[in-house]
Amino acid sequence: MNICIVGTGYVGLVTAACFAEMGNDVCCVDVNERVVETLRRGAIHIYEPGLKELVEENTSQGRLTFTTDLKEGLAGALFVFITVGTPCDDKGGCDLSYVEQVASEIGRTMEDYKIVVDKSTVPVGTADRVKEIILRELQARSRSIEFDVVSNPEFLKEGDAVNDFMKPDRVIVGADNVRVAELFKVLYAPFARSREKMMIMGVKSAEMTKYAANCMLATKISFINEVANICERVGADVREVRLGIGSDHRIGYNFIYPGMGYGGSCFPKDVKALIATSRQHGYEPQLVSAVDMVNTDQKQVLPGKIVSYFESRGGIEGRTLALWGLSFKSNTDDMREAPSVAIIRALTAAGARVQAYDPVAMDRARELFKEEALFSLAESQYAALEGADALAVGTEWNQFRNPDFNKIKETLSEPVIFDGRNLYAPSLMESLGFRYFCIGSAAVGGAQ
After folding, report:
1. What's the rounded Cα separation, in Å, for the pair 381 and 325?
2. Cα(395)–Cα(47) distance, rounded to whole angstroms?
3. Confidence band of 194 (pLDDT split at 50, 70, 90)
4. How many other CB atoms are found less than 10 A from the CB of residue 17?
5. Is the dihedral of CA 424, 299, 307, 309 positive or negative?
6. Of 219, 221, 225, 215, which is closest to residue 266 (Cα–Cα)?
7. How many angstroms separate the CA atoms of 57 and 401, rounded?
8. Which among 120, 102, 100, 118 is positioned nearest to 110, based on CA atoms?
9. Which position among 28, 231, 266, 438 bears the catalytic label?
10. Which of 103, 109, 111, 119 could lock 130 by a disulfide, CB 3.0 to 4.6 Å apart?
């Protein structure tokens, strides 16, 4: 099939590459000329495991092309996927301006039947809005061209997005007619060879399913973080509690890892967007609002431990902290809403220096903190320790899981670790002579 993808961010580029990998002809449209030129060379502007190879292969085979011209992208395409950004607006809702711009341009440009697909995460009712905009533009041209607007939300995890697309748990399609639903079954058939994975439902139900799914996962994260904070105060160990509750098949172990709160491009934005949508319709979402509040507070837990520790030792001002990990989770370079950002901002605001290392997010951090004189980047994880008074772990990259603890101890001015990801066993840290602080259990290693 011929497919047009508008937007080449995480969702758009993964969607395009995976559809092309299955033999479809895919044209990606983006307004950023620099990004388009980069992609035409087979290079990519984001980090996502396995994506670069897919883009290179399908570009070289001619199945995947890139342009800044929507008219070129629409030519011959049956499906038009909208995969542009939908950031939070200043009221916490979803900013649909990019989606609306694309819809307007489609209406001004299309010449034959199209299935317009909302792939971006958008509030309930957006498909209706997209349809209205396209109709308005067609009427302004005095044209009567048939089209359908469908919701096909993405369920991709950053760091494992290619695998999620190629082997989906489910494919949600919100469509108003049987013909469109049948075309989607053909489009997604190569991704559902072992069992039927497509769920056809109403458009608004599909839009809501995406928000409900992400808010459910965010709820599990905020829940275990709140339990962790209670554990610290009552003398329990959240690691043991997690095992106890996760063994119940109704709860499970996924998404109940205590830490510094969720981040990235999806959960923070989608939780806030559902809150805003609920309030717009006269309903106060108490649970989802609490999830958001707990997450905001959780990002200050580790900075609070660091500041508190140094308060009795002359204060945090003038101290240097080594930070391992900058991306909001491993296997991505995305620092949007990353807990590391909260650590850096809190400590530098208090007069401390932060020297950080991350395997892939260094360029993102360099741009984000280019005005911060107290922040610097190190060439390696061990170089970040030089001259530092303590180490904080901000991301669960594999290379941080079993480091050279003797080297850490020899390099730090004090053997102190603040572990925001609970990577290390407290008993091991204590036996090695570290003062060790983590999430959800008491600190170990001497006077705290």
Report:
1. 9
2. 16
3. confident
4. 30
5. negative
6. 215
7. 33
8. 102
9. 266
10. 103
pLDDT at 447 over 70: no
To which H or E segment does residue 320 belong? strand 320-324
Between the alpha carbon of residue 94 and those of residues 265, 269, 280, the distances in Å are: 12, 8, 12
pLDDT value at position 91? 81
Tokens representing residue 267 in the block: 């959960």
CA 211 from centre of chain: 14
pLDDT tens, 317-366? 999 999 999 999 999 999 999 999 999 999 999 999 999 999 999 999 99
Type of residue numbered 420: G
Residue written as tokens 């899981």?
Answer: 401
Instruction: Annotate 328-361 with b (16+ C-beta within 10 A) or e (fewer).
Output: bbbbbbbbbbbbbbbbbbbbbebebbbbbbbbbb
**In whole angstroms, what is the distance from residue 346 CA to residue 334 CA?**
20
State the Cα–Cα distance between residues 199 and 9, nearest whole angstrom. Answer: 25
Q: pTM for the whole thing?
A: 0.92
448 pLDDT band, cuts 50/70/90, is: very low
Question: How many whole angstroms separate alpha carbon 404 and alpha carbon 409?
Answer: 9
Rg (CA), the chain: 24
Q: Which two tokens stand for residue 340?
A: 């590391």
CA distance 442 to 358: 27
Residue 446 DSSP class: S
pLDDT digits (tens, 9 = 90+) for 211-257: 999 999 999 999 999 999 999 999 999 999 999 999 999 999 999 99
CA angle 276, 277, 279 (to 5 degrees): 65
Place of tokens 């609920």: 278
| C-beta separation of 329 from 400 below 8 A | no
The Cα–Cα gap between 43 and 321 comes to 35
Buried residues in 136-168 as b, exposed as e (16+ CB within 10 A): ebbeeeeeeeebbbbbbbbbbebbebbebbbeb
- pLDDT of 405 > 60? The answer is yes
Q: Find all residues with CB under 8 Å of 80, minimum gap 6, and list them.
A: 3, 4, 6, 73, 74, 106, 114, 115, 116, 117
Most distant CA pair in the chain, distance: 79
CA distance 238 to 229: 9
Q: Known catalytic residue: 266?
A: yes
- State residue 422 phi and psi, 5-degree precision: 55, 45
Is 340 within 8 Å of 323 (Cβ atoms)?
yes
Separation CA 64–CA 26 (nearest Å)? 5
Q: Say yes or no to pLDDT of 431 above 70.
A: yes
